[in-house]
Amino acid sequence: MHLWNGYHPEMVTDYYQFTMAASYWKEGMEGTATFSLFVRDYPPHRAYFVAAGLESLAAAIQEYRFHPDSLEYLRSLGKFPKGFLDYLARFRFTGSVRALPEGRIFFSQEPLLEVTAPILQGQLLETLALNTLHLETLLASKAARCVAAARGRPLVDFSLRRTQGVDAGLKTARSSYITGFQGTSNVLAGRLYGIPVYGTMAHSYITSFQHEMDAFRAYARVFPDNTVLLLDTYDTLSAAEKAVLLAKELQKQGKALRGVRLDSGDLLHLSQKVKDLFRHHGLDEVAVMASGNLDEYRLEELLSQGACIDAAGIGTRLGVSADAPYLDMAYKLVEYDGRPIVKLSPGKTTWVGRKQVFRSYGSSGVMEEDVLGLAEEEIPGTEPLLLDIFRNGERVRPEESLQDIRRRFQEDWARLPEKYKVLRPTERYPVRISDALRTLQDRVTRARKREEVGDLGGVRSEE
Amino acid sequence: MHLWNGYHPEMVTDYYQFTMAASYWKEGMEGTATFSLFVRDYPPHRAYFVAAGLESLAAAIQEYRFHPDSLEYLRSLGKFPKGFLDYLARFRFTGSVRALPEGRIFFSQEPLLEVTAPILQGQLLETLALNTLHLETLLASKAARCVAAARGRPLVDFSLRRTQGVDAGLKTARSSYITGFQGTSNVLAGRLYGIPVYGTMAHSYITSFQHEMDAFRAYARVFPDNTVLLLDTYDTLSAAEKAVLLAKELQKQGKALRGVRLDSGDLLHLSQKVKDLFRHHGLDEVAVMASGNLDEYRLEELLSQGACIDAAGIGTRLGVSADAPYLDMAYKLVEYDGRPIVKLSPGKTTWVGRKQVFRSYGSSGVMEEDVLGLAEEEIPGTEPLLLDIFRNGERVRPEESLQDIRRRFQEDWARLPEKYKVLRPTERYPVRISDALRTLQDRVTRARKREEVGDLGGVRSEE
């Protein structure tokens, strides 16, 4: 039963968040901490990310409290010190959150989110923040590439059947809509987000009729204004002839065949032949839609070879971000109780302190350089990207409409230089570390090495 | 708000299921259909699949009905013929479902599920069935490989932070537990499925203290019986020295350090050096746990090189099935109104008719061959794998415990020949097509080609 019920956000976490929280509580550690969420590096063929997921996370933080059934479960584990669960029962988020609004383009090492709160609170949000922002940012970043490859042709998200769960299906529809998809096949996303839904027929529909032509005609009877015929059930070119016949039958009723869809086979040549056939019959306006294992690479290949594709459905490879199914996203403590924090684990640099991203634009309005600096720095002529979302536990930036987020992405996209938009970029966008940040990083790193590496000189014996 | 609320299963679908359903309804097509769900082919390095997800799907089918808000949304689209939504309001699943129980090992082209129902009902379940079975089967198949590579060492699922959503995180915990993981870090999975939860501390915990040793001691104060120290925050070998010190401090209290965790760096050499240090101090029982970008390939490599790893946490690469983030799983109409159905789309063979998988075992009990045949065939000496789950809309096979499913997987795993269990198998398990199925397939394929391919001879003009 629970499988289709809601989740309590406080349970969407790794168990160690609770053991650490119990220790902070036991030690009386109530100092303010800042945690910074960022992507360490690019997956292959990526040169930018698109921020997404903040609305989901903000909603979860607003609702974040310990429900009785959650507390009961934690109690049943029999692991926590007396009093800790009572403390959780009174838990409310009282901290601050700064973040990139959804739809903004950002780069590796730049914080997408910073949480400043009593350490226990910031710690408990880690897994929830990562899971939420990781998924939508991953998908939006993939979807933007598909939109670029489609060169203005409308795209529809067809991914739900093979996304990694229902969540992922919803977020694919939402993220791809942010980056310019026209709509989705996902009915739940249509209902929850108001995204336009599209779709007409599957092979099962065609094959359930005695003859393909019977199926075509039956569909047009019930949806005469919106018929897109699937052509590849038996033989695409034979089906295209039947589509011409149906288009003419519709014309006699004052209607028009909307389009056809090719879902398998040699999409390059089939799309050309089908388009030629329609043109030959004066049916230029019948759209040729492609689907079936498409992604940005295949789309670009087909279009650059001259495929006659007017629109495309992008499914599985978008919905699982198949060529890069995860980002190396992390959520790290960078300051505690006024003390800047680093860790020294190899290959996992974390920039110290509360930070800000300062973006500068060239005279034509094109993005020129980002500076990663400390939050309190002021860098004239730049745009600070992280905005206040929560202050003292209160949400200070209201929920945004999907249309506004979509518009924000369009604005950033227009300002991103072309060389980063290509499918196999060879350059990285310049993100400079401010002098103040680098100086602090070096100082703290040296101190930590001196104190923690080597013999046990720094260890006081236990009182 | 809705983001953390439940989903109605009838909305977890592609829009075209409703347009097709509307046409079936309008045409009065009430014949019985069978839809077959299977994986077309193996991803690279795969030679078997582990069936999972049936409990989720069965729960959704049991709850499947059109809620008023769903109907209201569909009505708001303004696309459906009068009367169709009233029909949906009365909709109940009255069909039959046959499926592989969870935990069974199966192979490409073998149906994992067959739905036999009035066509409209079977059609509406397509996306839901695919999304549900695809995710859990994908993850269970990946997790089984990790268990094999760990050669008996306990594994814990650490994936939640970067799974593709909360759903996927839950299903990773569940699927990996089915295939033999010891537990998960995922608290929600612990609560919903009763899976043991594990975890101790992150780098943030260590760095929040003035000194690493302070953090180690503080943790041991609150969890003296269950302390696993994270060693790679500053310098793994320096931290190992501190761990030895703490272990001795714990010994004085009659307690024992449970283990240490290495999360970055050269895990081969670090694990050996750390293990040596503990042995040198007579602390042989302190477990060395590894984590950080692990998967079956890395585990096998480390263990074959002699890494001293007693247990491992497997995260992102398991949770997104990184080397194979999707399966080519399909749900196809194979029979309608007594008529066997095929489609001819290139590269997408679907075997016709209601089917059964017949498995035979050698004298030692090892799996020998599967036969894919028609459901009504009887093949002596074989085990038919598909079992009745729903009959006439009623669930006839009760919900199973996760322990039972886990046991079933163990049984099948013990019977699977070793050559298919290796990480890079070079052979495929033999799945033979029965004579009856092949004969039927050939006959129907020929008829379809004759009738649907070529000129428009088969098309009767529209009355």
From TrEMBL, chains A, B:
One Gene Ontology term of the molecular function aspect: nicotinamide phosphoribosyltransferase activity
Signal sequence range: none
Residue span(s) of domain Nicotinate phosphoribosyltransferase C-terminal: 382-440
Lineage, highest ranks first: Bacteria, Pseudomonadati, Thermodesulfobacteriota, Syntrophobacteria, Syntrophobacterales
Nicotinate phosphoribosyltransferase N-terminal domain mapped to chain residues: 11-133
Post-translational modification: Transiently phosphorylated on a His residue during the reaction cycle. Phosphorylation strongly increases the affinity for substrates and increases the rate of nicotinate D-ribonucleotide production. Dephosphorylation regenerates the low-affinity form of the enzyme, leading to product release.
Protein's recorded name: Nicotinate phosphoribosyltransferase
Pfam families: NAPRTase, NAPRTase_C, NAPRTase_N
Catalytic activity: 5-phospho-alpha-D-ribose 1-diphosphate + nicotinate + ATP + H2O = nicotinate beta-D-ribonucleotide + ADP + phosphate + diphosphate
Pathway: Cofactor biosynthesis; NAD(+) biosynthesis; nicotinate D-ribonucleotide from nicotinate: step 1/1
Keywords linked to the UniProt accession: Glycosyltransferase, Ligase, Phosphoprotein, Pyridine nucleotide biosynthesis, Transferase
Domain Nicotinate/nicotinamide phosphoribosyltransferase: 155-345
GO CC annotations, alphabetized: cytosol
EC number: 6.3.4.21
Similarity section: Belongs to the NAPRTase family.
Record-level GO BP terms: NAD+ biosynthetic process via the salvage pathway
Job of this protein: Catalyzes the first step in the biosynthesis of NAD from nicotinic acid, the ATP-dependent synthesis of beta-nicotinate D-ribonucleotide from nicotinate and 5-phospho-D-ribose 1-phosphate.
InterPro entries given in the database record: Aldolase_TIM, N/Namide_PRibTrfase, NAPRTase_C, NAPRTase_N, Nic_PRibTrfase-Fam, Nic_PRibTrfase_pncB, Nicotinate_pribotase-like_C
